[in-house]
Amino acid sequence: MTSSSSKSRKSSKSKAAKEAAKAPVTSASRPLSKTPPPFRNHIVDKRSLKNLVAWSYKNHGTAVTAEMADKLKDLGFKYATQAAVSISVDDLKVPAAKKELLSQAEEQITATEERYRLGEITEVERHTKVIDTWTETNERLVDAVKKNFDENAPLNSVWMMANSGARGNMSQVRQLVGMRGLMANPQGEIIDLPIRTNFREGLTVTEYVISSYGARKGLVDTALRTADSGYLTRRLVDVAQDVIVREDDCGTGRHIVVEAEDGRFGSRLVGRLTADQVLGSDGTVLAERNTEIDPPLSKGFEKAGVTAVSVRSPLTCEANRSVCRRCYGWALAHNELVDLGEAVGIIAAQSIGEPGTQLTMRTFHTGGVSTAETGVVRSKLAGTVEFGSKARVRPYRTPHGVNAQQAEVDFTLTIKPSGKGKAQKIDITSGSLLFVDSNQEIESDVTVAQIAAVAVKKSVEKATKDVICDLAGQVRYEQAIQPREVTDRQGNITLKAQRLGRMWVLAGDVYNLPPNAQPVVSSETEVTEGQVLAEASQRSEYGGDVRLRDSIGDSREVQIVTTAMTLKDFKLLEESTHSGEIWNLEAKDGTRYRLNTIPGSKIGSGEVIAELADDRFRTGTGGLVKFAPGLAIKKARSAKNGYEVNKGGTLLWIPQETHEINKDISLLMITDGQWIEAGTEVVKDIFSQTAGIVTVTQKNDILREIIVRGGEFHLSSDSKALERFEGDGQMVNPGEEIAKGLTSEEMKFVQTVETPEGKGLLLRPVEEYTIPNEAQLPELSHVKQANGPHLGIKATQRLAFKDNELIKSVEGVELLKTQLILETFDTTPQMTVDVEKAPDRRAKTISRLRLVILESILVRRDTMSDSSHGSTHTELQVEDAASVKAGEVVATTQILCKQAGVAQLPEATEADPVRRLIVERPEDTTTLTTSGKPVVGVGDRIVDGDLLAKGEPTACCGEVEAVDANSVTLRLGRPYMVSPDSVLHVRDGDLVQRGDGLALLVFERQKTGDIVQGLPRIEELLEARRPRESAVLCKKAGTVEIKQGEDDESPTVTVIEADDAIGEYPILLGRNIMVSDSQQVTAGELLTDGPINPHELLECYFEDLRSRKELMEAAQEAIANLQHRLVTEVQNVYKSQGVSIDDKHIEVIVRQMTSKVRIEDAGDTTLLPGELIELRQVENTNQAMSITGGAPAEFTPVLLGITKASLNTDSFISAASFQETTRVLTEAAIEGKSDWLRGLKENVIIGRLIPAGTGFSGFEEELQKEAGPHPDILSEDPAGYRRMQNLRPDYTVDMPPAASSSAVLDDPSDADMEATRTRHNIDPDASNFAAFTRPEADNELKEEQVVDAEAVEGLQEEGLLSDD
Questions:
Q1: 704: Cβ–Cβ under 8 A, 6 or more apart, which residues?
Q2: Is 1251:341 a contact under the CB 8 Å cutoff?
Q3: Beta partners for residue 573, in sequence order
Q4: Residues facing 812 on adjacent strands
Q5: CA distance 1173 to 986
Q6: pLDDT in tens, 400-457
Q7: pLDDT tens-digit readout, 452-485
Q8: How far is CA 1009 from its chain centroid?
Q9: CA 20 → CA 36, 54, 63, distances in Å?
Q10: Would the pTM count as exceeding 0.85?
Q11: Closest by CA position to 1302, among listed 1337, 1334, 1278, 1333
């Protein structure tokens, strides 16, 4: 297809659009002209199509526009079908200029790196410059892409789609054929390695990995935010669903002011109505009150020099719980005044919620590509720069480390061409940066200036970056740095640079010395390769016998036995069982102890070594413990490890078998109190071990316990005896009479029991266990060093149970445990004791247990030299099994020199021994010959490009060590620029290794907006969240005074208020103060940076105004200020993402958020303190109070987030359908609330017509009448105001008066009532439904209300109404 037909396809949509759009619009609909319009050859893109349709609609109405749009569509499809727009890989044309642009960027970056290497700029400035260079290159590449397509392939399908707005945008085309640009890492920091390729060329592996960070972020973002955005829309709909246009004019005198931006109003006035006369700058009347503002009128205001217009707005509308037509203005669907019954709340909610999805996916469109804003202006021609006469500039160092000038006033800069041609004029704003001087000759395409955006104090944060050393050597400061010591609260001293300056590292070979190494060479001595520079010795702390162990890794272990203890008279025996090895200690008398550890393990002080393995204290079953007099135990905090025996004695044990069961009682196979034999089945599958009397415990037919108590049973009728042994029972000594004719030869425990045969005495056997006073200790032999630690063993006996304790068990228990416990003396907490198996000295076949404390010394092997260490040579000074004394040397390590040179040692002090030394090698210095006399002196530090002699620049950096007639000796080095306030990690003269941190640069950067942007920010604003670290706000207007604290004290901002009162605002550390000394501030102004807490802002406004104005006026003005702030903030977020939403939508939502106040003091009204109520209701109530002379209610305005506002609507049905259904309905029931069915949701839920759109006409009549106070506040009655929602304590229900002036829904007509009654078979005379009898009320006074007596009677009968 030829290009001409393609051109015609585009032109057929014609420039008519544009011309027409520009033509003055006449409001009357003109007849279509018969003469064909002139042919205009213009491209019609998406935007001009929009204008064309708008123009057609405005001038020719709906039908013509629809027909035109149809024809346009057909035209488009026809030619698109013929042209068949296709896309192939070859359509992605990479501009030829890309190569050149990239090489320019590479050059700039190389230059930047070089400047950094020469110490002209700091690490931070380098990073910033690199990133800005790439950003700018990217921007220029986009222009090159556009130019390339425009000039070489205007019909390229990719370009046509992106350019016409059909599909895709420039950001995407740039990534396809330009370069992908800079990416951010997962922390959100920009990586300074850009993706130089595009998708057409393909990415390298590194680029692919970097690019996938952004891709992941985009995907996750999209998924999460779609859900978020949907929920936001739902909450918005809920909060605004009852805002319906219900009346024509509320007649308010209040308004908002719309101010021009740069002398223009844009579309911000269109569709509003004026609130006052609008006067031009010459005093002519441009518009009367209530004039609709259309685009021509808005333009007329701009021409007449009007800077601010008062317009009506939903924010100030006084319509009852709705918005009136005039305050709302045009409906944006048809650019006419909004219709009555339009549900503007829902329209507003959807208009704000729908773009939410765009906010989210925005990051996805650009694939997470970073873009920085730069207002760089380049020269378009070669010539001479002239600053205007007004120009005032001061020196300034840019974030790139360039010394530029900053403009202090606005002025115009002119570039006069060197040849013929027009001069280039650049408007310089105050705060802009200039990179040229006045009268300087410049070439074309040179950066002239960076124009500052609106001069606001940007919110900045402190950031830090480390400076890492690139070579080993010695640190030297330049004078300029002027380091000072700063002590913080903890007493730590840090060094801070006070000025911008260089820190040098002069090259040398730095050796790290191990701890305790001493240098053996002195400073300034010549050393040769392999010479010993330092020696470190390793000494034994306590002395002892040496054991050499095999090497582990790169070191050998030398163990020195400090202390040893052998258990001489116990044999150590090993036993193999199926569960593993068990070790026992056997004494000469055959007593066995079981070892708790195994040889080869380590134990600590206080641990149990062995336990007595002895069955002498093991019982057969459970039972009861009794201590005979004399047996005593130590008090223990916990019984976990038993009770230690203090004094030996006799322990008495009364056995009894206890089965703990949890089974149904039907499984019981014996009866309570029965005597059974051993082996009897007591419960299914459970057998008794012993014979005796059974006691069964059950609860709710579930068996809990079965106890079998053995012994002799004697039936007895001796009541005295039975009484004596009732309950817990008693001990009876041998030979003592138990009952008449009953004695026992042994000690018995006697209890009275009941059996099926009758009552009797049970004589239970008592077992005696003799507890020795103390356990037997083994015989020990010791080896120990003087002053060293030593060991001991303590034997303890522990009883498992205390006196009178009942042990419920079937198996036996261990009553007494005898344990051997390790004790250590003079040890440190780190010391452990090794358990060893040692042969006996005399009989080699017998093993003994030995406990030793070892001192372990790791001796390094010889190492080869590396970058930070010399090679080392280690010699052992001891042999195996030799004995060493305390403090004797075990091994010495020598540090050997890698390369010959001159050794230098830093000054050593007591507190700071020498840890590093440096050897200056021959290659660390260089000698440069000069043809002329050198112009440098010893000690000068020079960088590349500095002159050595006249006309002879140097090619290296360093410090001059010697100067001869025609040669200069340089010690090579590397400069690092440090900025003021940086923290210096090293001091002058310190030695550093490569990779050490030299300093921490502290710099300010603009806060990354990424934290709360887009959707989360909108949500934060609309939910009125309290931000975590909010800004400090000024409470009262006044003059600022800033008091700087000490070094680390935070400053305090004081504001001297109008009445000379002083407000103090302490500022937290790390906060930036946004005001300057002696600045005038107003209430609510930011004193520090940070997010604003909207609740605090409202409080500031209100408190400030309250001191000067009436309560009502102060509240209204404070709310108005806050509303303005909120609308602007929400708009800013959307604008930053390129989404345009009309202000009125946001105003409708914000109005819902700020409609309520909190009652602080009810005065004489019946309002409750702390309740939230609409401002207008309080206003009406207080007006009524002023008539009756009562005390009005005091209140403070509150801001509710959209969720809170939805739950606080008057309609409990709507609130319940939103969230927390049960709570809302319960509260409504308790409070006896009424729902007046005003909104859409309530009516949909009840199943009625909605009071909006076509369903609105039924409500119109009410709206004419509805002028009284809000129906919730019923008319006056002798007891003051009584509200339906807050019942009296006597819970009487007052019938709501159906005063026509306060009803929202019209009463049904008589015919309707009749029809309803017939449908439900209701007899009007006998009905007890108040709803079906009509109260006749023509005025609002309660006394004259006629109440249907029968209905009241009916309610009283049902107990719903009290008789009074």
A1: 660, 661, 662, 697, 698
A2: yes
A3: 584
A4: none
A5: 65
A6: 777 788 887 788 888 888 877 788 888 888 778 888 888 888 888 888 888 776 544 4
A7: 765 444 555 677 788 888 888 888 888 877 888 8
A8: 15
A9: 14, 10, 18
A10: no
A11: 1337
